[in-house]
From TrEMBL:
Catalytic activity entry: diphosphate + H2O = 2 phosphate + H(+)
A GO cellular component entry from the record: cytoplasm
EC number: 3.6.1.1
UniProt-listed Gene3D superfamilies: DHHA2 domain, inorganic pyrophosphatase (n-terminal core)
A Pfam cross-reference name: DHH
Protein name (record): inorganic diphosphatase
Species of provenance: Megasphaera vaginalis (ex Srinivasan et al. 2021)
Length: 422
């Protein structure tokens, strides 16, 4: 999948990340750029509901931005067949600077012949000794690569064969890897490195559009487009970008942007919601042809059904990493109409959180169990953070849990007090 610009949201994508990246990629396309939206993980039920409702295809999954061997391989260095003569091999080496000659049999990779070994064969002609065949000289290389391997694993010196499902493709070297054009990436709904797809150091960030805090240590080679606004949803900012560009928002894209705003503001119930979010939502609802309240509750109910999710899936739902005082912790969130069933599973949910925490050596892993109806959150957590949590929320911690009335926003009401307490 080759495109000039990838537009992506964060890992464990929520509806804002899925929908805003699709909408931003569409805007880039309408402006004449070769852009495509990608996702960093699997969508949740709420996101899938919005995509299906507005008949938009889910964007492809991209797990990393590392330069691949297949992007750097020299495909013009054709392999010699096993039936080739020594003269054919000599001519091959004469035309290529490589120290190894690839050998194939009907396209299937057989091995390599060393330049030095071929030279030894011609010494035999002086002595009148019997010469070997190319097939006899071919041997397994000390190191080879598949097209999907990471380019940074290619040693600084030497040339190496590349295969694809056993078939010879070409040769690769570190110099070729270094020449590969970097993938341009536009970040939406995140900016912290821990939330970005792996391998971003081997790509080129060309823009960031976000509504979160500025965190992490992102660095770019030159100036880039950056737009941060203290609104409830990235989709609100994307909507403004369409208006600024004087480009009409397509009906399906308006539906996705509206879905993102409804999701991030919990249908305007979240304290992060601003007048800008509400105004944008009204415009988008008119374009999409839906009633905000009716569609919004239908979408939220679809996302709130977690009955078929495993404890591990719930613990990882909409999970984000954060760094405070040099320590990394995670905060996941599930939004439901009724918290009763989830709180009844508290013991197994804490076990799933502890497993996640221990595997990645997080200082803590939190799960916000948020009630859409009551507009409150039960915050449970794994890790030795009782004192920090008690200090952060000025509340008693009982069995790794604290009840937070009128708390729905991770960004505004949970992360800042935890970071401050840390």
């Amino acid at each position: 999948m080759k495109h000039d610009i990838f537009v992506t949201g964060h890992r464990s994508p929520d509806t804002d990340s899925i929908c805003s990246s699709l909408a931003m990629a569409k805007l880039k396309q309408l402006q004449g750029f070769d852009a495509v939206a990608v996702r960093a993980g699997e969508p949740n039920k709420e996101s899938l509901f919005a995509l299906q409702y507005f008949h938009v295809e889910l964007q492809p999954l991209v797990t990393d931005f590392y330069v691949k061997v297949g992007d750097a391989v020299y495909t013009d260095m054709a392999a010699l067949p096993v039936s080739a003569s020594l003269k054919d091999a000599a001519n091959w080496f004469r035309g290529h600077a490589a120290d190894i000659l690839p050998v194939s049999d009907g396209g299937k990779f057989v091995g390599v012949v060393d330049r030095a070994a071929l030279a030894e064969e011609f010494i035999k002609t002086v002595r009148g000794e019997e010469l070997s065949t190319i097939k006899a000289l071919a041997h397994d290389p000390a190191l080879s690569f598949a097209v999907g391997d990471n380019g940074h694993d290619v040693p600084a010196e030497g040339t190496y064969p590349v295969t694809d499902d056993g078939k010879y493709v070409g040769l690769v070297c570190a110099e070729a890897v270094a020449k590969v054009k970097k993938q341009k990436v536009f970040l939406v709904d995140h900016n912290e490195k821990k939330q970005i797809i792996d391998g971003i150091d081997e790509a080129e960030i060309i823009g960031v559009l976000d509504h979160h805090r500025i965190g992490g240590t992102l660095a770019t080679a030159g100036p880039i487009f950056i737009l941060f606004k203290p609104v409830g949803c990235s989709a609100t900012i994307v909507t403004e970008q369409y208006e600024a560009a004087h480009i009409a928002i397509p009906k399906d894209i308006a539906g996705l942007l509206l879905s993102a705003i409804i999701s991030d503001t919990v249908l305007f119930r979240s304290p992060t919601c601003t007048e800008e979010d509400k105004q944008a939502a009204c415009k988008l609802a008119e374009i999409a042809g839906v009633d905000i309240e009716t569609y919004g509750m239908e979408m939220l109910k679809a996302g709130a059904n977690v009955s078929d999710l495993t404890p591990d899936q719930i613990a990882h739902n909409d999970m984000k990493e954060f760094n405070g005082n040099g320590k990394t912790f995670t905060v996941s969130q599930v939004q439901v109409m009724d918290t009763t069933d989830l709180l009844a599973q508290k013991k197994v949910l804490l076990s799933a959180l502890e497993k996640m925490r221990a595997e990645k050596n997080y200082v803590a892993s939190f799960l916000m169990i948020t009630s859409i109806i009551d507009e409150s959150t039960n915050l449970i957590f794994a890790g030795n953070m009782d004192d920090i949590v008690a200090k952060a929320f000025a509340a008693d911690v009982l069995d790794k849990e604290v009840f937070l009335p009128q708390v729905m926003s991770r960004k505004k009401q949970v992360i800042p007090p935890i970071l401050s307490a840390m």
